[in-house]
């Protein structure tokens, strides 16, 4: 039975029992900040176990029975993946769930039916064994009733058969309950141990756990009190690869039908057979390629933090093992294609995003291969003086990490292969010292903000946060609630005072979401203040950073708050960033996600996930699409609605951003080529897209690994930029004597002329050198240290001509080494025979620099340098070779 057939049978079986079949959720948790990844089938369903009504998009009514095959990620044992045949990073968990509907009786009966019925899996019932919680007599009764003899049932304590583990004594508080694990005896060919042995050792290759039935029936309270839940739940998990391993009669899941194509591809790429100790590398490469492909397909990108660091760590570990098998160029991206071929039918995102996934993987591999080469050489040097039982210092490990970007886990792994430990505590100390140096720079300002927050917290307790009224108007009447200088609250601010003003209501937008804080004025009878920016405290209080220009501003004063008209330019740029985001996703693909932005009156900057430069053609397509939206003059609207409703409608949310239960949705009411823009956003926007005028992209660059940046102008700034650019082009055309449309051809011809003259100049320099040599004069071969060499000093030549002369002399005189100098420049060439005997041009150059005060470098057959006293250098040459 293939893995696909097992998966389908499971889901179809539970559909026949009234369960709703749901597709796998993303491996990225949607609303659970405590998790990096979905790690079990029940994880994305937790809200329904906690009482949320189980209503699912596209399915009418409420469903209290659900079944899924959930792709899951567990990263706690990465270092064991491949070294054992049991550990996986990404796996598929089959599950059936009940939200207060059925309980133990049905769960056990259906598990038995699915496992043993010939219509379904048809496993031998005499080979099925189970474990239960030590006092779960209810589960015991149900198991014996379906046909499991008591001697094939083991009872264990809360450390083995309770979820969460040891919850009765150790917590946490909340829903919990006993569980029952199902094992299958694969027979004596997989081990000579017995079920009785398993009771003692709890380790077996013969008896394999294939299903865990969890019965959350209690609410744990303080003191270990287990209070029965009014409606107990069912949460089960069957490891698909384990069941496939059993049904296919293979040793481990690496031999199942879903993994063997990956193993075979590794053999094909490396030319190394899958056997013996080296098979560890095959398993690591296959499993991690599968994991990386799955994680990237759900929108995660390589980075140095969080999920991005995990997927980067997996890739680097796979590349490291590929390196051990002799691979010296990217290969993992080729395995991603195999993953998509094998599993894309079940998980269509693997095929839909394959091109993007492969590009990301290849770029990451190329970068890491460079890091790997440099880091391994440095680490080998560090380990050279150590032996088995020794310890590599934490300082050295941190140097590898900080200077070479070499991961600590790889340092530990490579050192371990030499029997050498790594001082991880010393590494952490060095890392902490570096972080402390960075933290100390901002400690003072952080302390001031904390003290200031006490005054703001008191204000919020009395009056609440600031009311923002600036979406519709740039002007409002307001009352001064608080004046702050530093952390001190003051009663009045005379002329010349720099002060932070808190108003009860304001039209000033506070810096946030990439949009700059508003500037403007505060006016009152007898005075005015200039607002230079606006910020918002964590308590929701708007802080107007102002300078009192005239009069005295007092707490309690009624003021007229006026935002600068430049805000309208900011609004143009903010709406344009939304259009730019939608256009990038339409042209480049759904992997594009916002990673940061700047929205001001002068320009906009948009950072987004993208793993390679954007081609000029695609950049032009993006710009054109945005301008078509602008020219269509679509209305721009905003509404407030529940977060879940907004997401169901397709509103874009910033990755990692935290939102409240009710969100503001900004929509462009129209689409171009079926593409539209709808985002969660609290910023300020135009009323119609036509107000933007136009958009011009003025720059595109990389700002971090996997993150690109676009800078653009809109409105009058865009028009001015185009006019200035045209004027520069026209001036350049006049300078070169051609119309603007012929500039490209004229520049090409000038470049060709320049190259021709450079070649002629190089020829003349070589002729000058030959003339100075005077045939064979000044080219007397000398000998030192068993090497024949020439030392020639010429006049008026640059390094390029010196290299040509050196090549000619080396060939003409069959010398082992030629040193040619001019002015303070020196070139050294070494012949092939001398290279094979160990003579190195770079080493000679280094010795001469020490003797003659110059500087230079090189290796192998060529080295060059400058700043030399040539007479001293040539005088030292004999001693260096000798």
UniProtKB/TrEMBL annotation:
One of its GO terms (molecular function) is alanine-tRNA ligase activity. Residues 747-774 form a coiled coil. Binds 1 zinc ion per subunit. Residues 1-724 form the Alanyl-transfer RNA synthetases family profile domain. GO terms for biological process: alanyl-tRNA aminoacylation. Keywords: Aminoacyl-tRNA synthetase, ATP-binding, Coiled coil, Cytoplasm, Ligase, Metal-binding, Nucleotide-binding, Protein biosynthesis, RNA-binding, tRNA-binding, Zinc. It is found in: Cytoplasm. InterPro entries: aa-tRNA-synth_II/BPL/LPL, Ala-tRNA-lgiase_IIc, Ala-tRNA-ligase_IIc_anticod-bd, Ala-tRNA-synth_IIc_core, Ala-tRNA-synth_IIc_N, Ala-tRNA_ligase, Ala_tRNA_ligase_euk/bac, DHHA1_dom. Its cofactor is Zn(2+). It catalyses: tRNA(Ala) + L-alanine + ATP = L-alanyl-tRNA(Ala) + AMP + diphosphate. GO terms for cellular component: cytosol. Zn(2+) binds at residues 574, 578, 681, 685. Its EC number is 6.1.1.7. Pfam families: DHHA1, tRNA-synt_2c, tRNA_SAD. Its main location: cytoplasm. Catalyzes the attachment of alanine to tRNA(Ala) in a two-step reaction: alanine is first activated by ATP to form Ala-AMP and then transferred to the acceptor end of tRNA(Ala). Also edits incorrectly charged Ser-tRNA(Ala) and Gly-tRNA(Ala) via its editing domain. Belongs to the class-II aminoacyl-tRNA synthetase family. This is Alanine--tRNA ligase. It comes from Meiothermus luteus.
